[in-house]
Specification:
Layout: H1 5-30, H2 37-44, H3 48-54, H4 60-63, H5 72-78, H6 86-99, H7 111-122, H8 124-159, H9 185-209, H10 214-236
């Protein structure tokens, strides 16, 4: 009798987690570049082909921990409450994650989290692969922002009086009709947000790694989020963002 599908999936997930945990433990103890895939497979008691069925590259053994957060910014934009601008939704989400001391924000002083962050950012091979995750996140957020802008423009069009019958609805001759409407705008804003978020994460981690008390680190992190989003909003303009 074959195993139920759910049980097979659970066993695969446990095997995947065991391999990753073993790998990260070895990397933290010895350094990423000093540990071979063969050593990881032996320590996890699996074959190299089995390991590669779960993780296509050595780097994925570490960076898979970030995969749950891929597309998170895009989801925040798409699932935001009606009437809440995308940047306001992203700011609120960032503050909520800081309050929860989510490791992905860098504001978590657990020794294992600090060591994991050091492993990622101080290992060139990992930090370069991290850029692939960042690019995927940027693509997803770009699409979400483009949809948000299209929705805002449709709502504006539906609410706008007919300029032929309402003189007050005629365009302002001094206004720039192209401001914030170019097709590249959503990508530019997405790129800025993702870049800003990465810098905030790095600042939080470095602060805690240097011994800053959590209360002070949290206060500074909240202030920096406010400053960062103020800069983003000033650059983004009001058209649907």
């Amino acid at each position: 009798m074959s195993e139920p599908e759910g049980l097979r999936a659970l066993k695969k997930q446990r095997t995947r987690q065991a391999i990753a945990d073993t790998a990260i433990g070895l990397f933290l103890a010895n350094g990423f570049d000093q540990v071979s895939v063969a050593e990881i497979a032996a320590a996890a008691e699996v074959s190299k082909p089995t390991l590669f069925r779960y993780f296509a590259t050595k780097e994925e053994l570490v960076l898979h921990r970030l995969s749950d957060h891929l597309g998170e910014a895009a989801r925040v934009v798409r699932e935001r409450p009606p009437g809440l601008p995308p940047l306001a939704a992203l700011e609120r989400h960032q503050l909520e994650r800081l309050a929860a001391h989510d490791p992905v924000t860098g504001l978590n002083d657990h020794p294992e989290v600090l060591a994991f962050m050091r492993l990622v950012y101080d290992t060139p091979g990992l930090s370069s692969h991290l850029r692939d995750y960042i690019a995927e996140d940027t693509d997803a957020l770009t699409a979400a922002l483009a949809d948000a802008r299209a929705d805002a423009e449709r709502a504006d069009a539906d609410a706008r009086p007919d300029p032929g019958t309402d003189p007050d609805a005629r365009p302002d001759p001094d206004a720039d009709p192209a401001a914030g409407t170019g097709p590249l705008v959503p990508r530019l804003i997405a790129t800025q947000f993702i870049g800003v978020r990465q810098e905030l994460v790095l600042a939080n981690w470095r602060r805690l790694a240097a011994g800053t008390p959590m209360g002070e680190a949290h206060r500074l992190a909240v202030a920096e989020v406010a400053e960062a989003f103020a800069l983003l909003r000033d650059g983004a303009g009001p058209r649907g963002y």
